[in-house]
Structures are given as C-alpha cells and as structure tokens.
Design brief:
Length: 386
C-alpha cells in the first residue's frame, strides 16, 4: 500500500470556510486535537506533514518517508512558525501559505518550492523551550564599563581562571546569549543547552573576535557591541540591525598548529567549473557527495562541519580536516558565503563552494593573515542544530 498522501481537492486555494489571519495565512482543522496547550514560538514540535504546490505537485512529505520530524518553531518558514502555534496536540490542520510566508516567489535555495504552498500538518508533541535568560538591566554600556578604541564596551561579570587568553586564530568554546538594543532575545546557547565552538578568525561579528580575546578560561563578561562591530550599519534584509548586547562565558580555547599538513587543492580551485550551480549573489557550488534527508539549516541554526579552504592559487589556508576535529558555529556568525551556502546542504552532504571576495573577507581584508579575494571551500555538513 502506498504511503503517498492524496492531493487535497482544495489544494489550489483556501475554501470559504477557512480561517485567515492578519498575515494572510489560511487554515482549516481536519481533526480536532486534545486539551488547550499550544506551542510557543521557541518550542520544539514533533509533526507529520505533507506539502504541495498549488498545481497539486507533492514536493515533500514525512508521511511518505514513514517518519515524523521535529524542529524548533523559530527555525522554519514564517507560515509554519505562525500556523503551528494555532494547533493543539493530536490536531490535524491544512494550511494555505502565501509565498511571502514560505520560500518566496523566487527562492534563493535551489530545489525549494516557489509561490503559494499547501500543507497538511499533524501535531504529535510539544517540547517547551527553556526559559529565556533575563534581559540585562542596562542595554546601553554604563559609565563603569571598560571601553576599547573600537567602540566595544565590556564589563566583567565573573572572574575566570586567569592566565592565557585566546589568540585571533584560536578555536573557542563558549556559552552566549545575545539581545538586540530593544531587549529582544537574539540567540542563546544557554537556552539550547550546548555551547558553541568556532574559530575566531572565521567570525564576522568583529565584537566577538575582539571581545573574546580579552577573556580567560571560565570568565563571564558582558559586551555592548556597536552596530559597526556587529552585523554592520546597513545589514541586508532579515539581519538584525543596530547595537547588540552579549553575555559570554569562555569555557575553553585551543591554539591550532600554525602549519598543519596541507590537503592538496582540487583541480578546479582556480575557477568554478561549468557544471557548478551559481546563485544570484555570485556564490557557486557543486555537490561532491549527496547527504541524507531533506532538512536544510536555517540562517540562525548552529551547524557542525568539516571543511578545508584554499585560495585560488591552490594554497590551503585553513582546514578542520587537517586538524582532525570538526567545528560548530551559528550560521549567521560567519562569512556571507558560508551563511548562504551551508543553507543549501542537508546532513551528510559534501559540497564545494567558490566564494567571491565580497561574500568572504573582501579583496583587501583589514585583519592581518586573512585570505583575500575569491576562496574555495570543501564543506561536509555533519549535523544541524545541537
């Protein structure tokens, strides 16, 4: 017996008896649930779902795969984030999601469905998100804060062990919580229950790079990061704007060997080949080996990867493979080419990226030792999330 779900007769448009929210999301209950508990925007849900384009084409279905899926509601398309919060456990609901609440009319991610979409969703369970950390009482740097020439301000919250501090190319493990200047929670490894690990010279938030080098192991410190040291004065749409506040605890750091055994450059390192896929931004990539599943990370996800990077003359400048240790980081905290590119991948996939200078460190990086111009990376996505 086939597990392929039947295409709804009303797949093309919401019927007159559908509920419609102010955002334009339409839905209709197919099966009543139990109780009155509904998930919040940070909660993790377990669901079965099937999704169709309005021409009736099925593009994804956990039902067909015979396995439910789980995800935090703040890491999926807006139509899902809003819609699942309407549901109770055991409920089945059909959603008609307009393009601007899905992947858009012209999705940037290859393979993503375009336009309006229709989903049938059954909610099985809700895992409540940990309680959010308390918002700092001072969202602007107080007079007592230490201030650097760059504009970064910080204040010691808890003494560390003393001794050495990370260098600009070290790998650090840290817990952090970040807020926007209005107190909105941005991200928190504390809530997720697992610290982040990343290489300092691959972080695009300059305030992180500068600030963590002030800390010793075990230390807790609050940073007030001006926009110029955060996501920039004029970030692209969807990226947080303005000043940021971060609480950091430095758990550990590791200095990597300066000259690891180099990994030979690929034959096509000098330029993207004709069979690569290019996005509107100029990022080119090619799948080296396919992964499993259909879930792609979102811009705010943390990912665990192995990678090697070369300049176009074939010189290896960095490699987690050479160090023998994969690395994890939040996707919105690295170079733009990685933020965009890793979102194209699924777990287990290996992909080669040709990243133009404007999506990497620029043609004339200001940070000493940073590679310039176009870069080539081989990336293996090991895991999405914590």
């Amino acid at each position: 017996m086939s597990n392929t779900p039947e295409t709804p007769k009303d797949v093309a448009a919401a019927p007159s008896d559908a509920e419609v929210t102010d955002s334009g999301l339409a839905s209709k209950i197919l099966q009543v649930g139990e109780g009155d508990q509904r998930p919040g925007p940070q909660d993790t849900v377990q669901v079965h779902y099937s999704g169709w384009m309005i021409d009736g084409k099925l593009f994804d279905s956990s039902v067909s795969r015979g396995e439910t899926t789980s995800f935090p509601l703040n890491q999926v398309i807006p139509g899902w984030t809003e819609g699942l919060q309407l549901m109770t456990i055991g409920e089945k609901r059909r959603f008609w999601i307009p393009a601007d609440l899905a992947y858009g009319e012209k999705p940037s991610r290859p393979g993503a469905p375009s336009g309006d979409l229709t989903f049938d969703v059954e909610l099985f369970s809700i895992e409540l998100a940990p309680e959010a950390p308390e918002v700092p009482s001072e969202l602007k740097a107080p007079e007592s804060a230490e201030k650097a020439e760059s504009g970064l301000a910080s204040q010691l919250l808890e003494e560390g062990e003393g001794g050495d501090k990370p260098g600009p190319s070290d790998i650090v493990a840290a817990h952090f919580t970040g807020w926007l200047e209005d107190g909105t929670l941005l991200e928190s490894t504390v809530m997720n229950g697992k610290p982040a690990q990343f290489k300092l010279d691959q972080v695009t938030i300059k305030g992180w790079v500068e600030g963590l080098q002030l800390m010793t192991k075990g230390e807790k410190r609050r940073f007030w990061i001006p926009a110029a040291l955060g996501f920039g004065e004029n970030p692209p749409p969807g990226v947080p704007q303005g000043d940021l506040v971060f609480d950091f605890q430095l758990l550990d750091f590791k200095t990597i060997p300066k000259d690891p055994e180099p990994i030979p450059a690929p034959d096509d390192v000098s330029a993207a080949p004709s069979d690569s896929i290019a996005t509107d931004s100029g990022l080119a990539s090619k799948v080296l080996s396919k992964g499993s599943g259909s879930n792609h990370p979102s811009e705010t996800d943390e990912v665990l990867v192995h990678y090697t990077g070369w300049t176009t003359d074939g010189k290896m400048f960095d490699s987690s493979v050479a160090r023998g240790e994969p690395i994890s980081f939040p996707l919105n905290g690295v170079i733009k080419g990685w933020t965009e590119g890793v979102q194209l991948m699924v777990e287990g996939e290996k992909r080669r990226f040709w990243i133009p200078g404007k999506l990497a460190y620029g043609e004339t990086p200001t940070r000493p030792g940073t590679p310039s111009g176009q870069l080539v990376f081989d990336v293996e996505l090991i895991k999405i999330g914590k």
